[in-house]
Amino acid sequence: MGRFTNFLRRKNIVFSARRYGIDALGAMAQGLFCSLLIGTIIRTLGQQLHVAYLTDIGTYAMSVSGPAMAVAIGYALQADPMVLFSLAAVGYAANAEGGAGGPLAVLLIAIVAAECGKAVSKETKVDILVTPAVTILVGVALAKLVAPPIGDAARAFGLLIDRATRLQPFWMGVAVSVLVGVALTLPISSAAICQVLSLTGLAGGAAVAGCCAQMVGFAVMSFRENRWGGLVSQGLGTSMLQMPNIVRNPRIWIPPTLVSALTGPLATCVFRLEMNGAAINSGMGTCGLCGPIGVWTGWLSPSEEALAKGAAALSPGVFDWAGLCLICVVLPAVLAPLLCQACRRAGWIKDGDLTL
To answer: Of 10, 142, 175, 301, which residue is least crowded by CB atoms under 10 Å?
Structure first.
């Protein structure tokens, strides 16, 4: 047993929730962002501006989301170069076989393939053959075996959330908005979660509301401590920057979380805000304005995930645009500082608690 433990330590194979549930998942989200998400934005710009060159670039970027995710996961697991490069084939196979659950399949399969590749890496004189062969064979075999069931399960769970939101838009609006918003601020990936669950439609709209409430809420309520740099880094970057402060004083999380509990049901019940763009946009909030852009692209050209749930293109009116602006920017920017001020008066939040 001691020999096996020493072997794992020497190979930098660490079985831990942090490495797989935070490091690998966070890296996968970056891989998604650098392929599917940025590709969606570029392709949408090309379609709307009628620039075929941009449309082609966006399409190419979107097509390599599987390899990008797998390589990102391997990088987070500190895989050797031969393992890292071999994961491109694994990611492509897992994403293709996984369908709607492609990202989840890539996450699980790439982790196993990467650790197996690391285990044999540099152990033989023909490492250039053994390491990529083991990584690819293990990864693709798992993709053929387990990715389709993962895709079916993820699709079913996503449909369950979607239907539950349509049946109970108020309570599900609160639940989805709060939970996805909290996930966005935690050191995990709300974008990856939304992509895995194929979260579009009303449920996607509630997720957008929750994420925007966290990002815009923290950015505006901490303005007096962090000024313009903090406004931009949190409002267009990530509210995850506040995590060290949340650990020190969890009460600073109350204002944006309450805002998400308010804007979520407003999105589902009043404005009927549906996020029918790429599912990953549901968990991005105002990061690069990806959440609002996803809603906009969903109006004009629904994604395949949304189309499978019955979505259709529409011409947005004044009410639609007003709802988008209120839910994503105006209400979080107004309500979060007011709630924060109430917390300050109660002594729950003090000067410096929100300083980055």
So the answer is: 10
Domain end position, chosen among 108, 130, 154: 154
Instruction: Please tell me whether residues 129 and 10 are part of one structural domain.
Output: yes
Residue at 120 is within a domain: yes
Residue with tokens 């989301």: 65
User: Within this chain, do residues 147 and 204 fall inside the same structural domain, yes or no?
Assistant: no
pLDDT band per the 50, 70, 90 thresholds, residue 39: confident
Q: Are residues 12 and 86 in the same domain?
A: yes
The verdict on 99 and 196 lying in the same domain is: no
How far apart are alpha carbons 291 and 338 in whole angstroms?
24
Query: Computed from CA positions of residues 256, 290, 196, 297, in that sequence, does the dihedral angle turn out positive or negative?
Result: positive
Look at residue 351 and tell me if it is in a domain: no
Contacts of 294 (CB under 8 A, 6+ apart): 40, 204, 208, 275, 277, 278, 280, 281, 282, 284
- Confidence class for position 319, pLDDT limits 50, 70, 90: very high
Q: Are the CB atoms for 27 and 42 separated by under 8 Å?
A: no
User: What does the alpha-carbon distance between residue 283 and residue 281 come to, in Å, rounded to a whole number?
Assistant: 5
- Lookup: tokens for 344: 């300050």
Predicted TM-score (pTM) above 0.70? yes
Q: What are phi and psi of 186, to 5 degrees?
A: -65, 160
Give the contacts of 211 (CB within 8 A, at least 6 positions apart).
180, 181, 184, 190, 282, 283, 284, 285, 286, 287, 291
Same domain, yes or no: 87 and 191 = no
- Domain that residue 146 falls in: 2-154
Report if residue 350 sits inside a domain.
no
What pLDDT digit, counting tens, does each position of 21-30 carry?
Answer: 878 877 887 8
3-class DSSP assignment, residue 286? coil
For 218-230, write each residue's pLDDT tens digit: 999 999 999 999 8
Same domain for 320 and 252, yes or no, is: yes
Residue 348 has pLDDT above 90, yes or no: yes
Indicate if 36 and 183 belong to the same structural domain: no
* Residue 178, number of CB atoms within 10 A of its CB: 21
| Same domain flag for 73 and 206 | no
Side-chain-side CA neighbours of residue 120 (13 Å)? 22
